Amino acid sequence: MILKILLEKKHVMKMNAKTLQKYYLRKLNKIVCFACKNSPYYNELINKTNIKKIRSLKDFGKIPFLTKQIIRENFEKIRVPKIKGYKVRSTGSSGEPLEIYKNKNSIYRTLLMGNPVFIAKYLNLSLNNILLLLLNDEHSIENILTNPLDKFLKVQKFLITVDKDIEYITKFIYEKNIEFIITYPHMLKNIANEAKNKNIKFPNLKLVLISGELITDNFVHKYEEFFNCFIMNSYISTEGGLMAVFLPQVNGMKIVYDNVYIETIDEEGKSVFNKEGRIVITDLNNKAFPLIRYSGLKDKGIITFDNKQRPILKVILGREMDEIVNSAQRHFSSYIFTDILESVPNINKFQIHQLDHDRFKILIEAGKDLENIDEIQGEIKIRFEEVLKEKIELKIEPVDEIETENQMFYVVKNHFL
Fold it and tell me: I need a labelling partner for 369 at 20 to 30 A (CA). Which of 127, 129, 243, 296 fits?
């Protein structure tokens, strides 16, 4: 399977615009036909649209959008049990945690595209097969089915969770002569601060792949200069896997065409090009839990074209996460705290406010089955204190709706930095 996927990737990346559109139509027809035959939800949905075959992308656009709420209400009707699936869950970066299943084909495609051996070829880099992968939790997609892939590509990999002490992580990178890192922007910033304070250099580091948070060109330039290596931004989600990577030669994000079909839509749900729209994705390979025209990412972007008229993406995240800082001025990855909230059942959406170093307010949109708010509040407080290593005040406040701020949804909002 791995070799077959690699050959397909190589073939697809060389396609011209006309051939790529035919490829998309073939893949979209295949996943829609499969979902219609094997998923009760899609069988009902597609029959209502009266679409016999997708002859154009315009036909595909007639299929209604899939939201997180629809997934929660129709989880078992969407799932295809006969296809072996691996449970994955979101990092909570949108404030709305979600669990789905992904099959081996879909997972392998994400892991292959995010592999140092594969990415280094785009940048003409030579790596010695050492990879450090910083994960959020055990359910992260990068922690599934990796052994066969690493063996096939002869990659040596180290897995470290982001809640590890930053001093330990920085020392590990230095002592192991790490060449390739996958992490979040906040973690990269913390590693840089620790290295600067301890006067540590990383002469072997060649490439850092970052994702999950909004970053600027200034951020990239600053840390490329500090680490003296390539910093590559990527667009990754639990639902869609690795969907796009930034490449200097295309002045945008190259879409991983064999992984996902990406649309941008306006407020009326119509496809738009060369202007900002809401990102909608279709996983072209996930038969265990088909995601067709999924609009739950809450991100915005612009689809434009490269010099060969193939679509490329410029992502504008629709959510933002500030850092969390304790009284000792230690910075913590926001993903540690969103993961804590995500583990609480029946919370549909949340927003973390750090009012001061030791004061937190958490807004939640909760399901009807959520009970014992005081007990849940106490448990979350304990877990926050374990991470921050200090006593805090924490209050959970149930609300009907959590609002956006200037069209930006803050998952973690720091009010004093």
Answer: 296
Q: Are 319 and 409 in contact (CB under 8 A)?
A: yes
Taking a C-beta distance cutoff of 8 angstroms, is the pair 238, 281 a contact? no
Angle at the Cα of 393 from the Cα atoms of 351 and 331, rounded to 5 degrees? 65
pLDDT for 150-188, tens place per residue?
666 666 777 777 777 889 999 999 998 888 888 888 788
Structure tokens at 414: 């720091």
d(CA 360, CA 340): 14
Q: Report how far Cα 137 is from the mean position of its chain's Cα atoms.
A: 13
> Token digits for 363?
């807004």
Residue 13: exposure state from Cβ atoms within 10 A (0-12, 13-18, ≥19): middle
Mapping DSSP onto H, E and C, the string for the chain reads: CHHHHHHHHHHHHCCCHHHHHHHHHHHHHHHHHHHHHHCHHHHHHHHHHCCCCCCCHHHHCCCCCECHHHHHHCHHHHCCCCCCCEEEECCCCCCCCCEEEECHHHHHHHHHHCCHHHHHHHCCCCCCCEEEEEECCCCCHHHCCHHHHHHHHCCEEEEEECCCCHHHHHHHHHHCCCCEEEECHHHHHHHHHHHHHHCCCCCCCCEEEECCCCCCHHHHHHHHHHHCCEEEEEEEECCCEEEEEEEHHHCEEEECCCCEEEEEECCCCCECCCCCEEEEEEECCCCCCCCCCECCCCCEEEEEECCCCCEEEEEECCEEECCEECCCCCEECHHHHHHHHHCCCCEEEEEEEEEECCEEEEEEEECCCCCCHHHHHHHHHHHHHHHHCCCCEEEEEECCCCCCECCEEEEEEECCC
**What CA–CA distances, in Å, run from 14 to 7, 8, 57, 227?**
11, 10, 21, 32
Residue 298 contacts residue 409 (beta carbons within 8 Å): yes
Which domains does the chain carry?
2-108+239-316 (3.40.50.12780), 114-236 (3.40.50.980), 319-414 (3.30.300.30)
The answer to whether 380 and 397 have CB atoms below 8 angstroms apart is no
Contact predicate 316/300, CB 8 Å: yes
pLDDT (tens digit, 9 = 90+) per residue, 187-232? 888 899 899 999 999 998 988 988 776 677 778 889 999 999 989 8
The model carries a pTM of: 0.77
Q: Across-strand partners of 365?
A: 349
